[in-house]
């Protein structure tokens, strides 16, 4: 069991372990391996990942801070599941803030930063899922196209909001609902056009292209999320009918 130091701080080894567990859990949530709305418990996660409760609690606190899990009284912790209204509000914010970030990136990004964007797109093009038009999965941080553009805005407020506060929640819905069907290839082409506008220093075009890009993603996400909610309701009704058939009348 991990003990705390005399000052009450978690030792470095435990913090490192908590970071690893946080990365594993957030990746599982983003990819849908831990489904939206599913209940999660400390004993279950501790057994799955083979860790003590201290690092796990720290990892779960970070997941909660990043809005990936939520706690309900008398229920416990669940993987976040936004309502349709909340999802659309999230993408409204993304449209406004990421288009602003693209405008600022066209103004401030250095040659090296633009090259880093192009290098990321080269890496994305080599992914099997994108090549087969099945999906467009982007790893987090410096391998995420949108993350790099926000960083390239050189605006600390935008970076705090989009690269920290909302990053994992946005990434969850981008990954699970927008990068499927015919959207992956179109999104990839749009990324290239945005980079070209940024590289040329065309602030207005960069902002416009990013706004269109996010609006297109918003429409795809909303449609697919609505379908998933309908599937959940149909399953719930089916289970309810099956239960009523098995329950003898009084």
Set down the secondary structure blueprint.
Blueprint: H1 12-31, E1 39-40, H2 42-49, H3 53-65, E2 69-72, E3 76-79, H4 84-108, H5 111-125, H6 128-131, H7 145-152, H8 156-165, H9 167-178, H10 183-199, H11 203-246
Antiparallel strand pairs: 1-3, 2-3
Helix pairs in contact: 1-3, 1-9, 4-7, 4-10, 4-11, 5-7, 5-10, 9-11, 10-11
Describe the structure.
The protein is mainly alpha-helical. It has 2 domains: 68 residues, Arc Repressor Mutant, subunit A (Orthogonal Bundle), CATH 1.10.10.10; 145 residues, Four Helix Bundle (Hemerythrin (Met), subunit A) (Up-down Bundle), CATH 1.20.120.530. It is built from 11 helices and 3 strands, in the order αβααββαααααααα. A 3-stranded antiparallel β-sheet has the order 1-3-2. The longest helix has 44 residues. It starts with 11 loop residues before the first helix and ends with a helix.
- What helical percentage do the residues reach? over 70%
Question: Using DSSP, what is the number of strands?
Answer: 3
Query: What is the CATH topology assignment of the largest domain?
Result: Four Helix Bundle (Hemerythrin (Met), subunit A)
From the spread of the alpha carbons, the general shape counts as globular
**Amount of beta strand:** under 5%
By CATH reckoning, the class of the largest domain would read: Mainly Alpha
Helix/strand order = HEHHEEHHHHHHHH
Give the rounded overall mean pLDDT: 81
How do the strands of the widest beta sheet line up side by side? Answer: 1-3-2
Going by helix content, strand content and strand pairing, the class is mainly alpha
Assembly state: single chain
Q: Going by CATH, what is the homologous superfamily of the largest domain?
A: GntR ligand-binding domain-like
Give the N-to-C terminal Cα separation: 52 Å
Task: Tally the structural domains.
Answer: 2
Biggest sheet character: 3 strands, antiparallel
Gross CATH architecture of the largest domain: Up-down Bundle
């Amino acid at each position: 069991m991990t003990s705390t130091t005399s000052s009450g701080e978690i030792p470095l080894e435990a913090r490192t372990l908590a970071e690893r567990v946080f990365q594993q859990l957030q990746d599982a949530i983003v990819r849908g391996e831990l489904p939206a709305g599913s209940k999660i418990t400390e004993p279950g996660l501790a057994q799955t990942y083979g860790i003590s409760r201290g690092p796990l609690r720290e990892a779960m606190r970070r997941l909660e801070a990043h809005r990936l899990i939520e706690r309900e009284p008398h229920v416990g912790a669940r993987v976040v599941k936004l309502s349709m209204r909340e999802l659309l509000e999230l993408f409204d914010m993304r449209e406004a803030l990421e288009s602003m970030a693209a405008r600022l990136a066209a103004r401030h990004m250095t040659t090296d930063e633009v090259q880093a964007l192009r290098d990321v797109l080269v890496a994305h093009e080599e992914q099997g899922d994108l090549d087969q038009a099945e999906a467009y999965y982007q790893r987090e941080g410096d391998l995420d196209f949108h993350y790099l553009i926000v960083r390239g805005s050189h605006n600390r407020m935008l970076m705090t909001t989009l690269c920290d506060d909302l990053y994992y929640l946005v990434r969850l819905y981008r990954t699970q609902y927008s990068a499927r069907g015919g959207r992956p290839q179109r999104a990839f082409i749009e990324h290239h056009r945005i980079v070209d506008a940024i590289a040329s220093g065309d602030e207005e075009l960069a902002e416009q292209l990013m706004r269109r890009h996010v609006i297109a993603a918003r429409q795809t996400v909303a449609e697919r999320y609505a379908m998933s909610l309908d599937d959940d309701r149909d399953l719930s009704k089916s289970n309810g009918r099956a239960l009523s058939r098995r329950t003898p009348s009084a």
